[in-house]
Amino acid sequence: MAETQRLSQNDLIARKNRIANYGSTNKNNTNRENPLPIATKSLQKTISENAILAALSVHDYRRIQPNLETVDLLPGKNLYNCGDGIRYVYFPINAVVYLFTTLKDGATIEHGVVGSEGMLGISAVLGEMTTPNQARVLSRTRALRIPAGFLKREFCTGGMFHQLMLRYIHNFYIQSSQTAACNRHHNLNQKLCRWLLMTDDRAKSDRLEVTQEFISQMLGMRRPYITAALGLLQKEGIIQNRRGYIEIIDRQALEESCCECYEIMK
Ligand SMILES: [Zn+2]
């Protein structure tokens, strides 16, 4: 029987709304048309805080939910290292995870950031069970994870989950290519503003628990340059730069100081 025949008219409307809303990093996103079945209320709430999982149909959700588990992520921990086998795919809740590459000489550079709008472990979904890069957690938080083999099989069955993941992979590809262009052609102040905005969107807090050393590694710039650029933003009243955290004071001014990349990537 065709899938559309199994779903009620309300289910079809709800699905249409979920697809239309998917991908938004709006902190007030309340896309909750269908109550989530089976799981405890705590797990339901956790699942609904990741945009991909929240957009699943009830049919897909019932099949996937038993394989999900909640895990704590520690700041500075690498979820993946280059060449690692991918055992799990992660769906961040309020986590911020940076994907980056380390060259032979030890130099590092980010090429993407993932929060509750997305997932980590794309390679496994596409059939490659090792990761070509590294993924590092910014601050202590939680995520849901699911065995990579299970998710790969789910992806291959097609359907809505397949569509959601393809759409996210496409969006991530845009983000990654724009990050490469930004890293090459825009100045440090612009890159730093873009980095703070992208992190702020995913951290769901204007107080970002981040060290200058971490920013230095992700932007591939020496720490004294990061210190100077942060100092400039603080002098203009845009941020408060404190030991171990950065607080965004004037979000609009931060956006106005940024290059065009944030508008393309957000
Ligand atoms: Zn840029």
Can you tell me about this structure?
47% of the residues lie in helices and 18% in strands. By secondary structure, the chain is of the alpha+beta class. It folds into two domains: 3-179, Jelly Rolls (Sandwich); 186-265, Orthogonal Bundle (Arc Repressor Mutant, subunit A). Residues 1-9 and 22-37 have low confidence and may be disordered. The protein binds zinc ion. Residues 182, 186, 190, 194, 259, 261 line the site of zinc ion.
Question: What does this entry show, briefly?
Answer:
The chain has 266 residues and is of the alpha+beta class.
List the helices and strands and how they pair.
Elements: H1 3-6, H2 9-21, H3 41-48, H4 51-54, H5 58-64, E1 69-73, E2 78-80, E3 88-92, E4 97-102, E5 108-114, H6 122-125, E6 134-137, E7 141-147, H7 148-156, H8 159-185, H9 188-203, E8 207-208, H10 212-219, H11 223-235, E9 239-242, E10 245-248, H12 251-256, H13 261-265
Antiparallel strand pairs: 1-7, 2-6, 3-7, 4-5, 4-6, 8-10, 9-10
The structure holds zinc ion (ZN).
The site of zinc ion has 6 residues, from helix 9.
Structure keywords:
Arc Repressor Mutant, subunit A, Jelly Rolls, globular, single chain, alpha+beta, three-stranded antiparallel sheet, 266 residues
